[in-house]
Amino acid sequence: QVQLVESGGGLVQPGGSLGLSCAASGNIDSLYRMAWYRQAPGKQRELVAAIFKTGDTNYADSVKGRFAISRDNAKNTVYLQMNSLKPDDTAVYYCNAKRFPLSNDVWGQGTQVTVSS
Length: 117
Prior knowledge:
Elements: E1 4-7, E2 10-12, E3 18-24, E4 33-39, E5 46-52, E6 57-59, E7 67-72, E8 77-82, E9 91-98, E10 106-107, E11 111-115
Parallel strand pairs: 2-11
Antiparallel strand pairs: 1-3, 3-8, 4-5, 4-9, 5-6, 7-8, 9-10, 9-11
């Protein structure tokens, strides 16, 4: 089973940018989907962005136009570039992988993103 390790979280001011990385222990080019989720205190975990084996992507409405997900199959890494950050983006961000559409989810340990002045 693939293992995921996130990095790149931290503290950023409103309007700033931050990039997250998710390194997988195995090949990601055969995975059905990789995604980023986030969970803010007292809230449910929500999907932020996903990228499929086909290269198709989708985004939560709240981040469209500000966030971009990408993958580098040669490095077995998925990225999330976050621009124009808002305090509401503050959360723990989790990397997620699915081998097949109905497979169990695989999760990373999460990385904290805090947007504050």
